[in-house]
Amino acid sequence: MKKKMLAAVLAGTMVMSLGTNLCWADGEKTKVTMTVWNGEWGDQLDRTMESFNSKHDDIELDITMQSGDYSDFLGTAAATNDWPDIYCLTPWTQVQDFAEVGRI
User: Is residue 52 within 8 Å of residue 15, measured between CB atoms?
Assistant: First the structure.
């Protein structure tokens, strides 16, 4: 349970930091997509998303809980070049692989 709570807090912190790192033009909302796996803390992320969106008129955060095979999702994203703005990489070898091809 502690790991799940820590993961939710870290994801929330990451989301909240978006407000200081994004630029927008002409008053249009910047849409930021985040895809996560593990529906067990989906309610916490929904509350985080709602809170973030209510405090930032210039950014729209959309958090999607992904089901199914993690590697299949990432493989499809790579093949179609249709990535979420924020996603998780595990294990460490996956992080290294993505870094080598310039994805992170």
Answer: yes
Contact 21, 52 (CB under 8 A): no
Record the pTM.
0.65
- Report the alpha-carbon distance of residue 72 to residue 81 in Å, rounded: 14
Residues facing residue 63 across a β-bridge: 34
- 8 CB-contact burial (10 Å; exposed 0-12 / middle 13-18 / buried 19+): buried
Residue written as token pair 């992320």 = 45
- Name the phi and psi angles at 68, rounded to 5: 90, -170
What stretches of 1-104 show up as alpha helix (H) in DSSP?
Answer: 2-16, 42-55, 70-80, 92-100
- 41-64 pLDDT, tens digit per residue, is 778 889 999 999 999 999 999 998
